[in-house]
Amino acid sequence: MLITSPSILCGPFLRLVDKEQANIWFVTNQQQDYQIKVSTTGGELAIQQALDTVQIGEHCFVNMVNVRPMGAEWSYAVEHNYLIIDNSQTIISPSGNDVFSFKVNEQISSVIQGSCRKPDHPSVDAFNGIAEQVKSNFTTRADYLLMTGDQIYADDVSAPMLVAAQTLSKKLGLYSAEHELGNVSKQQLDWRYSLNTRSQLFPKKEKQSRWANFWHGDDIISSRFHDNHLIGLDEFFAVYLLTWSSTVWNMVKEEVTLAEKKVHGELRSAYRKDWIALQGFIETLPDFEFTLGNVPTLMIFDDHDVTDDWNLSVDWEEHVYGHLITRQMIRDALLSYTVFQGWGNNPDNHQPLISQIKQLSMTEDFADNNFTETLYDFNDWHYQINSTPKIVVLDTRTHRWRSETSAKNPSGLMDFKHLEELERQLFEPQVAMLIVSPAPVFGVKAIEVVQKICALLGKELLVDVENWMAHQGSAKKLMNMLRHDSAPDEVIIMSGDVHYSFCFSAQRRFSSDTDRIWQLTCSGFKNQFPPGLLKFFDYIDRFLYSPHSLLNVFTKRRKLEIEHHPLKAEATRFKQRNLHTQSAAGLVELDSEGKLKGYSLITSDNHQLFFDLEES
Hints:
Layout: E1 8-18, E2 21-28, E3 35-40, E4 43-44, E5 47-57, E6 60-69, E7 80-85, E8 91-92, E9 100-102, E10 110-114, H1 127-136, E11 144-147, H2 159-172, H3 186-189, H4 191-194, H5 210-216, H6 233-244, H7 253-259, H8 266-294, E12 297-299, H9 314-320, H10 324-345, H11 347-361, H12 369-377, E13 383-385, E14 391-393, H13 416-426, E15 432-436, H14 445-456, H15 472-483, E16 490-495, E17 502-508, E18 516-521, H16 531-544, E19 560-565, E20 584-590, E21 596-603, E22 608-610
Parallel strand pairs: 10-11, 11-12, 14-15, 15-16, 16-18
Antiparallel strand pairs: 1-2, 2-6, 3-4, 3-7, 5-6, 7-8, 7-9, 10-20, 13-14, 17-18, 17-19, 20-21, 21-22
Helix pairs in contact: 1-8, 2-6, 2-7, 6-10, 10-11, 13-15
């Protein structure tokens, strides 16, 4: 690849921004002493800044600039424009956008939330609508964008995406991790030999009875679609770039188009269909880039950022971590997550990991057994933003409460130790609190019953039995915390994961207390639940689990009255619909106390669908 001048490959994206700092993340093709210039209508501001760079390829450098005002804090409700300059004092920018901006408010008035952004899904990316909202009015621009999981799909990868990832890796000279992968060679990972057949590279479960093989299956990777699962670290790097950047697609489009000729039969039709969907995704990528360049963004992983059903049960962990290829694959997913997502959430907490990654990059090989153990032992993927109200982001993947009764039973989403940490955060004096839980705390009971039945039948992998109520210990502890007198007047839980959206609220039964818990779920940005099936579950759930149904007595949340808030009927065909499947983002609006004022969905065509917070 011929490199002529410094340019941005991905970004810039605003990550952690608060009253004292702004962290700006971007990827370039050259390493230089990049600087940020910040200005307002009054002129350029005096700032302090510190640049940190991680080289992940011969022509690929991930940069984070921490910018702080020379005064104590940023001015509130003021548009702060920023741009990036290189060593020659030349402005570098993607797609002709020279200037981006951010604002800091004394108190959070709104946030945008969502999850599950699958590039080859046929729906239109919700960021098409989000960008229009961001452009429309600076004063009402959301304070944060919360991406609550599945920012990439590492398991369910389309054939054109795998071709694009390996092509981009070669052109940028992306470094990988030359692990020992058991019986799998580096050549076998080449798409020309593994396209649509990667599931055959993974080992099978051993020492199972014939019945267990028949009933549970012998695949150790539980994702239903893993024929093109990412394995190499450079593939993870490349897929992040391809999911977040329109620029890098210009480097690989020709090769992806030509690769179709090497696919035959029905697989060629599938390849063409996925490539058409990806081309539609590429067209809307500038909207994603604009949004993250102008709205501070916080992220947390869910399973597809690593692999489907990640840490579902003890049995799952024993099989997956017990084989070299899958253990190293998850390790590399965590390393790429650190660089692309975790670093920007909490730069200080991630600095020890970033320092070690920088050391390894000097060898152009990220394989290192000691660092593998460091990644697996790292315990600070979760974090808190000290805003008003504060935002607490939960790690529901590596803090699991493992089942004490059976290795095949689903683990609780958080263990006792970390639930106690959440309890301390929850019981601090405050009127309201925002919690990000990738999986909903209060889900659709009719669907949870189906999941429970599947778990009892030993088919927990069939329906992703990953809900808070699936584990007795974690469910009981969490419910007691949320109902406690010391909890805030209002707790707003924001979730994704399920590929449909809804608005539920909960209050203590037989109490005059007005404290309320809101469950706001929006999923996905670019993914959808089958509409007909969701309509069926919507009807069944409203019929069987209405607030006054006797069946609620048999649930773990029986001491709470759950209300389902429908979409408003006016000007919408979704009258009285509690569950909504459409690629969208959730807009959460707060009042002066930090309590919920409004909740709506922003669709890809920039329509707003409002939930009725009064009716249930």
